[in-house]
Amino acid sequence: MSVALGLGGCVINPNSREGPDTTPVVSPAPPAATTARPGEREHRRLVASFGGVYRSPAAQRLAEDVVSRLVPASDRPDINYRVTILDSPLVNAFALPTGNIYVTRGLLTLANDTSELAGVLAHEMAHVTANHALARDELEKRSDLISKVNTHVLKDPEADKTFRSNVQGTIAGFSREQELEADRIGIRTSARAGYDPYGAARFLEALDASTRLGRAGGQQQGTAASFMATHPGTQQRVSQAVRAAREIAPPGTGSRDRQTYLAAIDGISWGEDPGNGQVRGRVFRHPLLGITFTAPEGFALDNSGQALLGVANGGELALRLDAVELDTAAPLDKFLASGWINGVTTESTTLTTINGQPAAVGVARGQEWVFYLGAIRIDKTVFRLVIATRQPDPAIQNMFLTSLESLRRMTPAEVRAIRPLRIRLVTASPTDTPETLAAQMAISSMALERFRILNGLRQGQSLTPGERYKVVSE
Q1: From CA 365, how far away is CA 3, in angstroms rounded?
Q2: pLDDT tens, residue by residue, 275-299
Q3: Is the same domain home to 345 and 255?
Q4: Residues 47 and 18 in one domain
Q5: pLDDT tens digits for range 26-55
Q6: Cα dihedral 167→169→173→179 (10° resolution)
Q7: Which of 22, 130, 190, 328 could form a disulfide with 118 if both were Cys (CB 3.0 to 4.6 A apart)?
Q8: d(Cα 86, Cα 164) in Å, to the nearest integer?
Q9: Is 2 inside a domain boundary?
Q10: Confidence of residue 7 (pLDDT cuts 50, 70, 90)
Q11: Residue 201 belongs to domain spanning
């Protein structure tokens, strides 16, 4: 995302915040009676867009301590920083030129030791010290000025179109080079501060593995294209990070401080906020809307916030469930036939009742897809289910109807039972394996693969008895 001052975005995908005493280099949020620091409006907007501040005293304290240790080793020890943990499951980190640094709780769950977090934070500090956001902003301003000259002075729209196409690639390349430069500077800074310089490379490897697992599991990659346009490939960054670390010291040099890190993130939330809907295998539950829904077998589900999305059969089947407000007097069959899917013609609709609620089902057809449509009214809310397939298929239609019939109100006891998933620590026994600990995960989809990624384990790597490992549990 972008804000007025520009971002240096980098890493992508019951706690309370009571931070430690402030230090000269890490500033807490300013008291209400004081003058807001520069960029405060952008800070508030950015925090709001990422779900707010995630409140974890131990994680906040650790992040601030790491920055306090990094600042004297940086190229600009005079800069004052403030670290904010964002309540987002996405793995991301970025910085404002004002010294505001942001990391998501999703990033904290993926990292495995303090040196990995130090590598991320030092990378963000490098964006600030190298003025990357301001440099990119200046390049974009100059490009916009040339574009206006082409259009309004020279009156040459074709030249402007060619120029814009060329400059888009220039800005993207400029951003990619900034990322690589920030990696180099960050690794040098973290090593000076006494951290293991290979921490950055290990984290980037975990990021790459997590991204590949998300794609294999069918998760939606809505921002992947724009992210890759401005970021070098993760493998390229891993290779460079390893080279930069080797130029500083051999492996085994510097502090990792794994135990301190794990203690700081023990109990941190993992995955989506259940208040916005929760996916458990094929089952979707939304406590605020008060409904539960079970998707057909084989669908990988992703709760995007605006809708529940799913894919199956390598993308040959697609699913969408969302909710809209509709006048209680509006007929549901007419609603299905109203053309709310662009370019699709509704062929038939039928009024019915599902779980005691008014409902309608229908079939629509586009140029390449057939859509099975359903709508169920619960109070003033209409829940819409669409399953799309390449060809009409009675078996898929029956699967759609069974899934639609699973949508119902939750009981108060079911609503109360919804709890967030959290990172918990378990100590490996001599008989434990990745498989036995993965079996403790409260995740039904690819639990073993996720366990390995969460703990930085490669395929075939065994556990160390007595070592603590991360699992996801309720």
Answers
A1: 41
A2: 888 888 899 999 999 999 999 999 9
A3: no
A4: yes
A5: 444 444 444 455 578 888 888 888 889 999
A6: 100
A7: 190
A8: 34
A9: no
A10: very low
A11: 8-264
